[in-house]
Automatic annotation (TrEMBL):
It comes from Rossellomorea marisflavi. This is YibE/F family protein. The chain crosses the membrane at residues 5-20, 27-45, 51-70, 77-98, 118-143, 179-202, 222-247. It comes from the Bacteria. PANTHER family: MEMBRANE PROTEIN, MEMBRANE PROTEIN-RELATED. Keywords: Membrane, Transmembrane, Transmembrane helix. InterPro entries: UCP031503_TM, YibE_F.
C-alpha cells in the first residue's frame, strides 16, 4: 500500500464526512479532471494540434465537471460556468500578449545543460504551449471564484426576492472584493511555495537580483501569478453581472407566468 493510496483514502474519508454526497462527488471530480488533463496532454503531442484550442476545450470540460457534476444544474452553476468561459477567453488575449512580448516561451539558459543530449527542434509552438500552461494553471482559481460569488448571490435573492438587479450586482461585487485579496495571496504563496527550490538554485548559481528578475524561468512564474490575478479580477464583475442578470430575469419570468 503506497503513501499516495493512503492519502487518497484519507482524503476521500474526510471529504465524504464533511461534505456528504457532494464531498464524494468532489473526490470523483478530481480524478475526472485529472483524466481530462492527461488526455489533453496526449492530444497536444500531435504536431498538428493547437495547444490553445485544446486547452480551451479542456477548461470548458473541467468547468463543467467541477460545477455541474458537483453542484448540479442550477442558476448559480450556469452563471458560474458562463462567467468562467467569458473570463477565460478574455484572459487568453492577455496571456498570448504577455507571453509573446516577454519572450518567456521555450527553455531558459539554466536548463540548457540538462537538455544538451536532446534535439530542440521538436516542432512545437512554445508561445502557445506557454499560454496553455498559464491558462490551465489559472482555470481552477477562476472556477472557485465564480461559484463563490454566484452561490451567495443566489442565497441573497432567495431571502430577499424583491432586491433589484443593481443592488444584487453591488452585493456580488462586495463579495468578490472580500474574496479577491485572500485568493490573490493564495495564488502568490502557492506558486512561490512550489518554486522555492528554484530560488535556492538561483542562490547557488550566485545570481544577482537583476539576473534573477530577468531570467526566463523566474519571469514566466511572475507572468503565471500576474495572469492568474488578472483572471480573478476580471471574473468578479463578470460573475456578478451575469448572476444578477439571470436571477433578475428568472424573477421576471415568474411574474409573467402568474
Amino acid at each position: 500500500m503506497t503513501v499516495q493510496f493512503i492519502l487518497a483514502v484519507i482524503l476521500f474519508i474526510l471529504m465524504t464526512a464533511v461534505g456528504g454526497k457532494k464531498g464524494a462527488r468532489s473526490f470523483v471530480a478530481l480524478f475526472l479532471n485529472f483524466t481530462v488533463l492527461i488526455l489533453s496532454i496526449i492530444i497536444m503531442n500531435n504536431p498538428g494540434a493547437n495547444p490553445v484550442v485544446i486547452t480551451l476545450f479542456a477548461s470548458a470540460l473541467i468547468s463543467s465537471i467541477t460545477l455541474f457534476y458537483i453542484s448540479r444544474w442550477g442558476t448559480k452553476t450556469i452563471t458560474a460556468f458562463l462567467a468562467t468561459i467569458v473570463t477565460t477567453c478574455i484572459l487568453l488575449v492577455f496571456i498570448l500578449l504577455f507571453t509573446n512580448q516577454a519572450m518567456i516561451q521555450g527553455f531558459g539558459e539554466e536548463e540548457i545543460e540538462e537538455l544538451a543530449p536532446y534535439s530542440l527542434y521538436v516542432g512545437v509552438d512554445f508561445v502557445k504551449i506557454g499560454a496553455a500552461m498559464i491558462l490551465m494553471s489559472t482555470i481552477g482559481a477562476i472556477i472557485d471564484l465564480t461559484i463563490a460569488i454566484s452561490s451567495p448571490m443566489q442565497e441573497i435573492k432567495h431571502h430577499n426576492p424583491d432586491i433589484d438587479r443593481r443592488s444584487l450586482f453591488a452585493s456580488g461585487m462586495s463579495i468578490g472584493r472580500d474574496i479577491l485579496g485572500t485568493s490573490a495571496n493564495t495564488l502568490f504563496f502557492a506558486f512561490f511555495g512550489g518554486y522555492m527550490g528554484l530560488l535556492l538554485w538561483f542562490k547557488d548559481l550566485k545570481y544577482s537580483l537583476g539576473e534573477i528578475v530577468n531570467s526566463k524561468v523566474f519571469s514566466s512564474e511572475m507572468i503565471f501569478i500576474g495572469s492568474s490575478a488578472i483572471g480573478m479580477a476580471l471574473a468578479i464583475p463578470i460573475t456578478a453581472a451575469l448572476t444578477a442578470y439571470f436571477l433578475d430575469k428568472k424573477k421576471l419570468g415568474r411574474n409573467r407566468s402568474y
